[in-house]
Specification:
With 358 residues, the protein is an alpha+beta fold. It has nine helices and 21 strands. The strands form four sheets. Strands 6-7-8-3-9-10 form a six-stranded mixed β-sheet, with helices on both faces. A six-stranded antiparallel β-sheet has the order 13-12-11-14-20-21, with no helix packed on it. A five-stranded antiparallel β-sheet has the order 15-19-16-17-18. 35% of the residues are buried.
């Protein structure tokens, strides 16, 4: 079931939650709507579900206009962050609920409901808990029950709103892997909302980064991480260092470091910013050309990785670098040491956020 979002906008008073968004979500794809709190991602998900009405624009499911259809007729399964399970019902009754409340002419026979529910409970590995109550289960188990309940009605589209946000880190990681395996088995068109960058990059086929009600970037996890379209995407998708650069004679200059420009830059442009990920900084213990002088302020070794915090006059903020523990020890560096930074990969942007190909 493909989904077309055509120029959707939504306001709450003076606040613009969704601002003229158009997207085409492919059938069988697992798509992450990623962004900070208040970016509009949950509002967009609720509009797709029919829980909110847009102020303008249309929603299409497989070519059919569903904008004015009630939730019950859209064929969506919705999973909430806080499970929304019925406390007075058993696990079995919770999963079966969507089937038992159907009109009599559409309601499956009790035997069919029982078989279907037990099959789903086996799928989420909780068939042994069928007669238990939600209060007797862990948070991760309750979220799997919520997902089984959403799947029970055999939805055309599965929508998940921060599905793992209420869980601790270890359980979140386990459920991310589980959801990916489940999706690969079912191939149901799925959209989930998250503010967790790692979750979006690890689980999804496609990441749509949303900021202030607009789409900042739309692409595969690898595309949005390796080739951010804006400073916001760079800064939101993991840690990044920002260096101030001077534009002069076809190059971006950061101290003695020169980055060539491959496109024309407007003549009035004198300043840009170079963005470099911590793992894209080579650390040197001797001065070299095309390297920036820095001093080490802090060192932490976490497992196989050494993380350094450095100061350099070419950035107003502390610079973060990552390298292997083995390589770090071969350099013989310590807190207070002089070091040199050499960007392996970087991206330049104008002040206003327009990219410069360099």
């Amino acid at each position: 079931m493909s989904i077309k979002i055509d120029r959707i906008s939504k306001r709450f008073g003076n606040f613009v939650a969704v601002d003229d968004i158009s997207l085409a979500l492919n059938e069988g794809e697992l798509t992450a709507l990623l962004g900070p709190s208040g970016s509009g991602k949950t509002t967009l998900l609720r509009i797709i579900a029919g829980l909110e009405r847009p102020d303008q624009g249309r929603i299409f499911f497989h070519g059919q206009d569903t904008t004015d259809l009630p939730v019950s007729q859209r064929g969506v399964g919705f999973v909430f962050q806080h499970y929304a399970l019925f406390k007075h019902m058993s696990v079995f009754e919770n999963v079966a609920y969507g089937l038992t409340v159907r009109p009599r002419r559409l309601r499956p026979h009790k035997t069919q409901i029982h078989q279907h529910v037990m099959r789903l409970l086996e799928m989420v590995q909780l068939d042994w808990a069928a007669q238990r109550y939600p209060s007797q289960l862990s948070g991760g188990q309750r979220q799997r029950i919520a997902l089984a309940r959403a799947l029970a009605v055999e939805p055309k589209v599965l929508l998940l709103d921060e599905p793992f946000g209420a869980l601790d880190a270890k359980v979140r990681t386990e459920l991310r892997h589980w959801l990916r395996r489940l999706h690969d088995e079912l191939h149901i068109t799925s959209v989930f909302v998250t503010h967790d960058q790692e979750e979006a990059l690890e689980v999804s086929d496609r990441v749509i980064v949303i900021n202030q009600g607009r789409v900042e970037q739309d692409g595969s996890p690898e595309q949005v991480y390796d080739h951010p379209a804006s400073p916001f995407v760079y800064e939101f998708l993991g840690q990044v260092n920002r260096f101030t650069a001077r534009i002069q004679a076809g190059h971006a200059h950061i101290g003695d470091l020169r980055l060539p420009l491959t496109t024309d830059v407007p003549p009035q442009t004198q300043q840009a910013y170079a963005y470099v990920r911590p793992h894209d900084l080579e650390i040197l213990n001797e001065k070299q050309s095309q390297a920036l002088a820095a001093r080490i302020e802090m060192i932490s070794v976490v497992g196989p990785t050494a993380r350094l915090v450095l100061r350099t006059p070419y950035s107003n903020e502390a610079v973060h670098a990552e390298l292997s523990k083995h390589h770090f020890h071969t350099l013989g560096l310590h807190v207070g040491s002089q070091a040199w930074l050499k960007p392996i990969s970087s991206r330049l942007f104008f002040d206003q956020g327009e990219p410069i190909n360099a």
